ABC transporter substrate-binding protein
Amino acid sequence: MMKKRIASCIMGIMLLSMSIGILGCGKENKVPEEGNDSSVAAEAEEGNDSNVAAEAEEGSAPVELVYWNQWTQEDEIAFLEKYIEEYNNSQDKYHVSFLAIPFEEYTTTKLATAFATNEAPDIFECSPAIINQYLDAGVCEPLDDIITDDIKQDYTEAAFDRVSRDGVIYGIPLDGDLVGLYYNKEILEQNGVTPPTTWDELKTAAAKLNTDDYAGFTFEVDKGDWQCFTFYPFVWMQGGSLFTEEGLANLNSEEVVNALQLWRDLLDSGNCNETPGRSVSDISILTNGETAMQINGSWSVFRADPEKYGVVPLPAATANGNTASVAGGWNVMVNNQNGEEKIAGAKDFISWMWLNKDHVTEFNTKAKFSYCMRESVIEAGKDVYQSSENAIVFSEEVLQTAKPEIALSGEAKEIVATMIQDALYNTSAQEAADNAQESMLQYQKESGAKFSG
């Protein structure tokens, strides 16, 4: 009966999330090439190979564990293949296979559907944009027993805030992604444009750079979590917030309306890429020559040649004003619905894999470029964080301005996402903000939900 209630809860959230769009903590959507090791995807969807099946008949097969995530880039896949194979070879009690699912599919339908149909993986990952629906549904296993005091002290004070409920930890933070403004050095130089530092300079630069061959500027115009993720800093850099200190809606504040108006002005100018054809979390929009400037994340430091592409903090609202960024990241979780044996195995694997400082350092500095909220990892990776001009910008200028991504419920996230879309296409910025404020306050009154950010 409990599983039916949980499935019903997840299905309801899933249907809502399907209308919201993709997640904000930025990822590029690249499907793994065919021919990856069978432990990557085939075993996860089609079952075990004949050797494992034969062992099962003899009663000596290891416990099969399935791990789902959204790490679909080539270096990420290689990292996971390497260490999952090493783990499987290190013991014979458990066997882990993983499925790397394209980001949009993972966050909108695949994971939620799997829980709704009792086919969820043993190990999965969540970002702040989707984590609440799984915590609310009660499908996550507590991890306090594997996160020792020594390990906990190695993380920043706020590292476990997003993965905890009532003092219980349900997830291990893996990474931290930031956003900035990337630009094509040659195009800006040819047009006598310096990277913009204010909103007015951004508008002027977009107009000067825009041509029939490429857009002057690209930001996310499609509704979804990634759009919300990149919108928040434009409110925060003015000293504003989407929610009050008491956790109530602040969506029609001056700072929110100003940020909405900026985005509407940019869109109406005709100097921006309104149809990029893919998520703006994909830096190839810039590197393929489709735009001169693009909002994108720290994960693209290794994917945008620093000789050709630069990065600066997001432009401030006014001259000498503050900039801001957002810090999102993924957390590994354990499904508590598949039985004690699988729970024990899942905990054993994630302890071996994701509580190992060396593994996490390699993941954050070689498989991708991101900032773990674990002090020893930041120290171990310091050379990488200073390895190029763009890496230094993120490490020394953007990181210090970042605030945690807002963790919203599905209903609250839909209200914010609708507000941004309405301001871009349907109503004035003020009207969109007023409507969202009314809807959010009503939702909070009925649900008792409070949010921070």
Remarks:
- The first strand starts at residue 63 and ends at 69.
- Residues 179-327+408-447 form a domain with the D-Maltodextrin-Binding Protein; domain 2 fold (CATH 3.40.190.10).
- The radius of gyration is 22 Å.
- The chain has two domains: 2-176+328-404, 179-327+408-447.
